[in-house]
Amino acid sequence: MGYLSVAIAALLFLLAWPLFHTVKQARRAEFIRDYRWPPGLLDKLAKRYPQFTRKETALVSQGLRQFFMAYLRSGRQYVAMPSQVADDLWHEFILYTREYRHFCDKAFGRFFHHTPAVVLSPAHKASNAGLRRVWWHCCKEEGIHPVKPTRLPLLFALDVKYNIPNGYVYHPDCAQLRQSGVAGAQCGGDFGRSSIDGGTDGFGHSGSDASGSDDSGSGGDGGGCGGGCGGGGGD
């Protein structure tokens, strides 16, 4: 009878786990969406970019939320930041050490280390996987077809929208640009193709929240530094 009870308990656990996981993810997503930034955080971004209005700093903060949501929905796998201005806000947020740690605990169940902003690269598959995850989930959030996009999701459009120095430039589809001889363009449609680096790692795969995947990885921000760059550091 004892063995039967254990077996029934194990079965009930297995049946209940997906529901528990779904509820937990929903609560974390709600926390990210409704989180109130620490006082003064957006003012720090405005000091770095004095031309920004309050509406513009709020839109950048929305882009950072989109990035955090992509990390959560990817199963807390490695992701890479595609926007310089959102990355700058992330830096400022990390400096609020207590608030940032509390945010990570509630949003992800663990600390989310910083990884630098990157662009799609033939030489860095790990970086491309991280970008592809973010692209996929940002597109899904905004109802954009990730392979045949007609526009960019917010996070990928911010740097051009606000003319950020050394920002990252993306286009929804580069077919016409390439026909015109424009080289080096970063294209949303490329995230779903293997022609860039021979793979589509990270594209459309959510992973498991319990997988224990490392979020540090190698970013490659053009300065030769990996997941330890900037305000965070890698595991």
If you average the pLDDT, what whole number results?
Answer: 79
| Total of domains | 1
Order of neighbouring strands in the sheet with most strands? 1-2
Number of helical segments with 4 or more residues: 8
Keywords:
mainly alpha; two-stranded parallel ribbon; 235 residues; single chain; globular; disordered C terminus
What does this structure look like?
The structure is a single chain. With 235 residues, the chain is an all-alpha fold. The chain has one domain (18-192). The chain contains 8 helices and 2 strands; from the N terminus they run αααααααβαβ. It has helices at 2-34, 41-48, 54-73, 84-94, 97-108, 125-142, 154-161, 175-179, and strands spanning 170-171, 186-187. It has a two-stranded parallel sheet. The longest helix is centred in the first third of the chain and has 33 residues, at 2-34. It is globular and about 75 Å long. It starts with a helix and ends in a 48-residue tail after the last strand. The model is unreliable at 206-235 (pLDDT under 50).
Map the helices and strands.
Layout: H1 2-34, H2 41-48, H3 54-73, H4 84-94, H5 97-108, H6 125-142, H7 154-161, E1 170-171, H8 175-179, E2 186-187
Parallel strand pairs: 1-2
What is shown here, in short?
The chain is mainly alpha-helical and 235 residues long. It has helices at 2-34, 41-48, 54-73, 84-94, 97-108, 125-142, 154-161, 175-179; strands spanning 170-171, 186-187.
